[in-house]
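Lecture notes, unit on binding sites. The following record was shown on slide 14. It pairs a sequence with 2-acetamido-2-deoxy-beta-D-glucopyranose.
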Amino acid sequence: MASSLAVFFVGLFLVLTGEVIAMVNMNEDELVGLFDVMDSLLDYSNWAKQYPLPCTDTPWPGVECEISLDNFPTFHITKLHIGPDVIDPPCKNSANLSDSLLKLPYLKTLSIFNCFVSSSSPVNLSPTVFGSLTSLEHLALASNPSLSGEIPSALSNIVSLRVLSLPQNSLYGKIPRELGRLVSLQQLDLSYNNFSGEIPEEIGGLKSLSILDLSWNNLEGVVHCALGMLKLLQKIDLSSNKFNGSLPPDLGKLNKLVLLDLSHNFINGPIPETFSGLENLQYLIVDHNPIHSTIPFFVGTLKSLTSISFSGCGLTGRIPSYISSLNTLTALSLDNNSLSGSVPPSLGSLPSLHQLNLSNNQLSGELQLPEEFIDRLGKRLDVKGNPGLCTSDYKLHMKKNISMLYLQIPPCLEKQIIIGDHDNNNNNNRTFQNHPDDTNAQWLLVINQKLLSSTIVLCWVIIILL
Ligand SMILES: *[C@@H]1O[C@H](CO)[C@@H](O)[C@H](O)[C@H]1NC(C)=O
Ligand SMILES: *[C@@H]1O[C@H](CO)[C@@H](O)[C@H](O)[C@H]1NC(C)=O
Ligand SMILES: *[C@@H]1O[C@H](CO)[C@@H](O)[C@H](O)[C@H]1NC(C)=O
Ligand SMILES: *[C@@H]1O[C@H](CO)[C@@H](O)[C@H](O)[C@H]1NC(C)=O
Ligand SMILES: *[C@@H]1O[C@H](CO)[C@@H](O)[C@H](O)[C@H]1NC(C)=O
Ligand SMILES: *[C@@H]1O[C@H](CO)[C@@H](O)[C@H](O)[C@H]1NC(C)=O
Ligand SMILES: *[C@@H]1O[C@H](CO)[C@@H](O)[C@H](O)[C@H]1NC(C)=O
């Protein structure tokens, strides 16, 4: 009884909403605007005939509408999305952004992917259009090689904007200072373009920003201290630009930051110790910058770190053993630096570490990592190119599997006994070759000697016992 009543009410509701929807009008101007915009994008002259009522009877997957109840109920177009997921091929060769976008004043989302591709018809961001779409919350124009020109400063009129995502286009020029007025902006992605100049101070106005991606551009100058004001930032990617100078201590205030990628720039060290405030940092990627300092202290205090990468940073000094207190660490890359001293054996007790690259440094002494650790990492343990490094674990050398050969380091004390030669230029003789059949007579001698000495010890023990 109850369930049949429920079915009846649901049925009634559907009939009623169906009727209501049929009664709701669409603004004629908006509809014409949509047809113009589609016509400028798609090679589909019949679009208007095929989808005359895109909000009701003839929906199209890339268009969404909402009913507004301002005066009388009216449908408005609130989302326009073009991409290979909606139509393939998505756009015509001479696709363009029609000024008729201005007739869609209720548009909240405009996303166009992989559409403007023909170099013979470049497309620009018109200040008239993008200064006026003031309902827009989400603007994503990505992977459009012929979308070029500058970001119009009028874009900063769209104060409702939450997402500005313009990666992989051919945009250039400076990041407009006026963008700092976008107080609701949560994501700013300008990666893989050709933007130049400096990060404007006004970026400090983007109070809601949680994602900032400026990677793969031509940006220069110092990393602006105003970034330290953006307390909600979780991701900063400034990689592959031309940033130089020192990092601002203010960045250390970003206690929500999870990812910081500064790789491939010209940033000088030392990195400020205020970075110990980045208590949620998981990814610290600094590769290929002229840091030229020792490994910073603060690294040992960031207990959330899972990945640390300082390849090619000119680091000097020793590998501090406090790195071994970072229990969540999964990857550590310190390769291609000038680190000296020994490899802290405690690194081998990091429970989650599965990638350790210490190659191309000046590390020396005996490598004392647990066998279990060496087996676990296999090829992902790289200690090549450290001429002073050796191992006395001859068992390791007998295990002729790949992980052992990958270590490519010679035996320790034994080399002096066998080779009897301290000439450091004679490195070739001290490095294992990468071929499993390269049986090295030296090792066998070493092993024999070891076996011999332990046999002697054993004999003495037996004699004493007797
Ligand atoms: C694209 O549209 C703009 C105006 O919206 C116009 O000035 C430009 O010439 C058009 N480009 C092409 C290639 O049609
Ligand atoms: C990027 O911009 C610079 C000037 O800032 C220019 O020299 C360079 O040719 C541009 N690169 C591309 C791929 O457009
Ligand atoms: C950083 O680069 C700019 C040019 O891009 C230069 O004027 C400035 O002197 C450089 N600063 C440092 C500290 O190297
Ligand atoms: C090592 O770092 C230097 C810069 O410090 C760089 O020029 C070189 O390409 C790097 N080598 C490797 C193998 O990454
Ligand atoms: C370690 O870093 C060097 C560059 O310094 C690179 O050539 C090598 O492939 C890396 N090893 C591993 C295992 O990733
Ligand atoms: C190397 O040999 C050990 C046992 O001797 C084995 O546990 C390990 O999995 C082997 N590693 C590789 C990469 O084959
Ligand atoms: C290796 O050492 C042997 C003698 O111990 C010497 O004859 C040989 O020339 C050395 N090889 C290289 C490449 O230095």
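Take-home: The domain at 62-448 is CATH 3.80.10.10 (Leucine-rich repeat, LRR (right-handed beta-alpha superhelix)).
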